[in-house]
């Protein structure tokens, strides 16, 4: 899984002494060749089988070879020889769970807990066992609530008897993956040449996946083990992991970048020391794109000493101003626990990080989790459920853009195995049934300020779009989750003003459309309760900011009073309040006007109090007071005559003059527009 084992030719064990067998086993294990270590230690154990220490060590080697059945039996033998060692009993039960017998494991964990005092074990075991019992309950619940997912082994054209891993889609019908292409078991020898893992490529047609071929690119050569990688969104940058043994025969892995120029992949360049470190395993790159800052982001797994546990997930971004990768940052305790966090994959459409972890209570070995967010801001990890996860190790999860299919890697039973039924990693394809696809599509057009101020910018037909459409409008799609707004997608409308966005079911979204010199417009979308795929047709209007005063319709007051009526509050909510919320940078003047009845000073004071009451209501609704200015003009700025030409009263004109208006004074740059590095 994470180890890159060395292989050579097996020596005959029959003529070797117990000491020699043990020494070879220890050396093989040190070099990461657990197959060889197990073979020699099994021969050693046959000579020393009646000691608990030997049986426990043998059990640990079975576990490292992921032979869970033999590991469970051997750990139990060790416990039977020394019941003062509760660790052997605990490891036996862990292996029982890994074989898939979760209910039996739960019973044995509970029995262990009930007998802690009787057996004289330390009370710390109670906390550990309760965690394991809860993990069994979680696994049983996940199985009971299994997902409608079909999982299929990719077959012998892709999967061999050793390790196949790290699927990297190129298109719907082509992918690259890592593999150790050996058809027989090989073992450790001190003078052997390491069998190398490389990247292979396969294409799919109507008959299925073609036989894997070595990926013929310059950086996938025999100088290194090339084990995984990731493309950027444009497909012209590939970050890969290349591994080598050092003089101690310890495997070290580093990240390299490769650019495609004029259709050809160039030579690989080692990423900076700040990322790769010295003597570390830095691996499993996952490229993403920061749409706010328009830059590449790289997630990866490393055993850096700056981590929280074993292997942790870090991220770095490419600083276009400095033309360099930034200092890596740990994703933090929301993602990284005390165990291993590995094989990150970032789905750009969903803004989700998929990764595998041994830190959380789950199905069994290493489980696949998802977490919404980006950079260092992620939500609580969610177990991907059964049968995506099994009771063994599941990792390298990749979701295709259709959100219905993808790949994962697992050593679950039923694969193409050589040593035992769960020894080795195979690549699987999955298909999720009944995925609900919800789309919104429409046009963006220019509307009058008065219509926009009335909240009618999204009540449009497409009849006038031949002349009034707006291109180059920025469309931001936000998911509202855990009281946070997560930017899911950002793009510009096409030349004919069309846009299209995709939603997940059972979610809440906000679509924000903006253009320089125009008011923004927001559309709230709630997909909760939508159980079938559908397309929502929605046209949206934007109004140009002219700087002139705009009448706020139907804003009325109690007679001879500054108090707003309930109808006026409703009009404010759907009009100016929405405008201020959707355009957080604008500063407005709220002005009130009267007709010419009454004293000039009285009318001026009344209009000032009315304007101030509108501002008071807006601040109560959450608008910052420094964005609002009140001005009472009284009768000084009529827009219609108060009397007719013959001197008679003009009720219609007076009604027009009794009005409330707003005017844009300033359009500030907001925090979300600024290049603020601290937001990460």
UniProtKB/TrEMBL annotation:
InterPro entries, per the entry: Bact_OuterMem_StrucFunc, OMP_bac, OmpA-like, OmpA-like_sf, TPR-like_helical_dom_sf, TPR_rpt
Start-end of each TPR repeat: 52-85
Compartments it resides in: Cell outer membrane
A Pfam family per the record: OmpA
Main location (coarse class): membrane
Compositional bias per record (Basic and acidic residues), positions renumbered to this chain: 651-672
Bias (Polar residues): 639-648
Protein name: OmpA family protein
